[in-house]
Known about the structure:
The protein has 217 residues and is an alpha/beta fold. Helices cover 45% and strands 16% of the residues. It contains nine helices and six strands, in the order αβαβαβααααααβββ.
Amino acid sequence: MSIEGLISGYQRFRRTRFPAAQKLFRDLEARGQSPQTMFIACCDSRVDPATIFDTSPGEVFVLRNVANLVPPNSPIARHQATGAALEFAVLHLNVSHIVVMGHARCGGAAALLEGYHNQIPNAEFIGSWMNIAMTARDRMMRLPLPPAERLLHMEYQIVRLSMENLLTYPWIGERVEDGRIALHGMHFGIADGHLSMFDPASGQFQPVLTDETAVDV
Length: 217
């Protein structure tokens, strides 16, 4: 979208949506934000948590980066936006849920799977960033999968690894342990709109039922 398109969108927002939500925005400015849920999602332009989950301003705290990665806690991580956002969400906002959401046809996952320089020439920053997920790649490569399914399972493994890395931050680990925070893994299908959720009991991603797919229990 061009800058002109963005300005037109802003004008539509002010004309149609803002008047109805003006009290909400005023309240949010006056009292600050208090979201219960933090999303760690990919910065892919096709995958917007606020749109997918139909949330209003102030309801979710969203961090987006390449391939929805969480680096493990380390002195280096203290200089990263991901660690800073986690610290703010957990210690200041006191979120009670952290969701790591991957998605179909993730470019970062594909770069990890196929090789950074094959996917994106001269990928200095992407290569360094995606090295965080080499463990996920190694796990996926050990699975007896046909080539057509490898990218999907690479995306799954990245979500799993990011959830594990969240626990390396002591102020997250202790809150998960005592029940103040719950961790969740999700995967969104762009073309079909299907959402899958990680099931800790089975270790697999299970589809989330919708009105169209729900069945009587």
